[in-house]
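Complex record, two chains
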Amino acid sequence: MPATFGSPAPTAALAITNLTKTFVGGRALNGVSFAIEAGEVHALLGENGSGKSTLIKVLSGYHKPDPGAEVLVNSAHLTFGVPHSSYEVGARFVHQDLGLIEDCSISDNLAFGPGFPTRVGTIREKTTRKRARLALEAMSLDLDPAMPIWRLSPAQKTGVAVARALIEDESAPVHLLVLDEPTARLPEHEVELLLAIVRRVRARGIGVLYVTHRLDEVFEIAQRATVLRDGVKVATEQVAGLTREKLLQQLLGAALEQAHRKSESDDRKGAPVLTVQGLASEALRDVNLDVHEHEIVGVAGITGSGRDALCATVFGARPHDAGTIQVNDQAITSRRPDLSMAAGVAYIPAERKLQGCFMDLTARENIGFTSLSTIWRFPTLRKGLEVLLAKQWFSKLGVRPSGGTEQPMATFSGGNQQKIIYGKWFQRQPSLYLLDEPTQGVDVGAKAELHQALFSAAEAGAAVLVSSSDVDELATICDRILVMRNGRIADVLVGERVSVHGITRAALDA
Amino acid sequence: MKLPRGLGFEKYSGVYLWIALIIAFSIWQPHYFPTMFTVHTVAADQATACMLALAVLVPIAAGQFDLSVGANANICTMTAILLINDGWAWPKAVVSAVVLGAVIGAVNGFFVVRLKVSSFITTLGTGSIITAFQIIITNNSQPMPPSIDSWNNFTQTLVGGFQIIVIYMFALAFIVWWLLQKTPFGRYLFAIGSSPEAARLSGARVGMYTWVSMIISGLIAGIAGAFYASYAGPSLTYGSSLLLPAFAAVFLGSTQIIPGRFNVWGTVLAIFVLATGVKGLQLATDAQWLAPMFSGTALVVAVAVALGRQRSAEERTRKRLARTDASQLPGSSDEPLLPQVDGVTVE
């Protein structure tokens, strides 16, 4: 590829100048500028929280940036905060959630946006089919438009979503396609198919903003790459002539390494509490691990690595096909969370509002829920005791408002909800904690208090397994990190390597 | 905030409405309405409707509809009467009818829990199937009411002027209240109703509890049917006419006593408020369309009110949290926000 990109030309598919976005809690983007040429695939890289999603949401008209920013799509001004302006200037988006309707056919899905061709109000089936076939052919997808979406492979689905995004519209020709982590949920062997589709798009002279976590893909598909860190553009570079090492340095920065929790526990490591052997499921392949008393073990990995499935599978909330899970020498079977709890396991899921708690029950009822056998004495649940337990956890974990034990869960902030959920499980004094995204959507102060609570649990002898997409968090609290790639534990980090850089490198296999 | 909190308008608006209705009708119909006779007949006539509402209430706490309770109670009534006419001792017939009700509940539970058919669809269907069976066993002709004194006295004995079926109804309400509010079982049902997945991940056997709630629903419908057989005699169609009032009372009741939660005393209150309104208007105007109009309106309005209340509560919470967030914001971003973690990590 000739290195002609770089100098801003008037025909740039996308030109962002001085983009800043301030939220109540801080600045998500700070003076970001870069351009994408027509027919260029431009990779956008950055850690979680670096501002990638805010940038995409500004482009799609969801967020309104601070004054002073300018975004041009093919020289046309984007009016901020107006989604249809984004469409009119020719920007199209394929989000991680593809937004396809599984039960409907490909041709129906392709027609939902632009509308069905009709004659006196009746859908013209043949024309709909024909249009769909053309749109698929343009993506070199050899699929029958009558096929329902659920029968497609993940990459084919993404292909249909791309085809839908690029459907011709004379009043608003497409100049820019934004792909938000298109390969995050794809199995390895499907990635190539998707990259082929991206190449077809590029050949049509459309600029592609390709957001990804996978460095391999950057080198394979992109001409240039822009790296964001903490809302600031670190660099925009030609991919030709860029090394993995350099890219990684830009991603991570030279920020001071945070000292992690000292693993003095090595010498006083207790007996194994959790032993997993040969665990396999839809998302996991041959996973072996053990967690000891007093130990906090982290699970890291990019989306789709199996990280987010591990804790739920060990708890028995998700089925597994093979392998054994032992907690305190008791076998855990799948689909019976109540038995896992009886064996001494606590599980805090990532989806707090839907799976972690009962939003319309009171805080007291939420805390008491896993300890009902203690509270129950015939003929009633002892409300006094339950109130006492709730108050106790409110004060121990610093839940605010402190007198809110009788308020519904929905009236608490995210951080306080999470504390209440912790209280619910701490009350049982489990010997093993399984935590998915333990502080997601929690403010900084509450995060520290929750970490503190975990330390005390480990101090008291519990084993803790934490899966988190927040690398900072893992580096701060864990003694040992299991790094997952493609459903396997690909690396185990201890000592010096438990650091933000170490984890990110291992997760990206760099 | 506009209404004075101390008078409990939020929780007891139904009580105030009830009192207002009673006063209004007492003034409008001073000769017929404010009599003990009215009190006794309204109480006894509503006992069956109230028990059916309790049957609806138990599974709805766990988020499951039982639309078959009307048909279920009806077939249990006919079964009890046919068995007695066949020469069975009436206590045996009553027990058989109640068992039948519970079995119907278990079948509903099987479809809902094991085959994962939505409870709405399941009970809509089984309700129709039950009606079909009733036609088969009765030949669609009303049998003779059994003329056994002890059988009639079973529900019609007077206790302090009230027929004893009213006492049975309150006893049943008390048991259901205890079950839902005072036992782990009740707590599990409300948790499942709130979020089945969260309940499962917190160790509740969601399938089992859901199934049991359907069985209890059928059981209560069976009891209501058996009592009705003794109280009013055979009827081929009363069940379906009581279904909607039962649902109306349950939803209206969820805005009373413990607002935002399906609850026993709110449901009982709602039944009697609605019945008082209908009774008063009937005495005054003799119109036939009042009862269905009242129940239907109550059902829709109750759900609308409950949803509106929920929305405004969410809005209030959102605003309050936004306010506290803003006030907790650090003045400058380099202020240390992690004192505890620092204490641990900096050795």
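Note: Residues 71 and 239 of chain B are 5 Å apart (CA to CA).
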